[in-house]
Structure formats: C-alpha cells, structure tokens
Amino acid sequence: MGSRTPRKTNDDRRARIEAMRKAEASRERRNRVITIAISGVVVAGLVGFGGYVLNKENEEKKAEEKLLAQPISGEKSFKKLSQTHVETPVTYPQTPPVGGDHNKVWLNCDRQVYKEPVPNENAVHSLEHGAVWITYNDKAPKADVEKLEKRVKDTSYTFISPVKDQKDPLMMTAWGKQVSVDSAGDKRVDQFLGKYVNGPQTPEPGAACTNGVSAK
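That's the DUF3105 domain-containing protein sequence above. Prediction below.
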C-alpha cells in the first residue's frame, strides 16, 4: 500500500480539530442552557419562598394587631394618678400599686426577675417609665411563675416579683392599668405586654429602666 501524502494528513488533522471545536462549542452551549434553566428554577423557587415568607409575616402581623386591638378582658384602668417624688413610705389603694406618689429612684426593670418582694415606691417609678410589672402570690402555680420569669428575661421593660397579699395568684400592672390572668399561657399576657410596655399610658416613655436600685 502507498503511504498517505502530507497534504492528506494535514487535511485530516484540520478536520479532526474542527470536529473537536464543534463538539466543544456544542457542549458549552448545552452547559449554558442547563445552567440558565437551573438558575431559572432556583430563582423561581427563591421568589416563591420569599413570597411565602412575606405572606406569613403579614399574616402574623395582622393576627398580632388584631389581638392588640381587642379589649383586655377584666382589665382595670385608673386615672388622675399623682407623680410626686417622695422619700417616705406610701400607702397605695391597690395591691400591687398602679401609680401615684413614688420614690425619686426607679427600680431596675429591664428583664429583671426578683425572688423577693420589691419596694412599692421604687416599682411605681418604674411603671412611670413604661415598665410592666408581673406579680404572683403563694397560690400561683410554680410552673406558671417559671414561664413568666422566662418571658420577663426575654422582654425589655418588664420585671417580676412576689406580692404575697395581692388578691389573685397572677397579676400584671402598668401605669394606670392592671389585670389578673389565669395562667402564663393566658392570651392576656401577650395583649398586656404588647399594649403597655412603653405604651400610650406611659407618663415618661423611653425613660431609663436600668441604673436604678435593685431589691435586696
């Protein structure tokens, strides 16, 4: 057999190179199409998930607003409360007190859990600053007290302490507002905190809740 001519060999080489280039170009186009398709699916998924999250957040916000708009069952309101600073003990008409004359120094009230009774006069000053005071007596279930203590640790401008002679086992107090609740899971706990932590009833909203005094 005769040998192949150099020209024929070069033509074959060029043909193979051209075929390889076409195959590579075809693979690149195919990969781009796949990448674009996958990206489209991912983006669509993210958009769908984002829409789901936004809808869920909107639904939760509406549910919260609806809850806060409802009157709090059993809530009592007190008006015309004095705000005079005094250095002597005060006899309050409510237990625990909801406002009135008080000590010039507030009780530390930012996520504070007190295991012993606190001075009323300092606590009332904290209410003036927008804090909510949760209290309990000896009849309160231990499990409820522990849950409310945890809630306080998670909520700014709140404090909890025992008040032995209050009329109901679990009570919540803000400046001029008070309600008794049945348990730590009572929906009024969320309502009261949502409405009255630095709420519209606060005489001095945003005033300090730290650097005051702590119960001994």
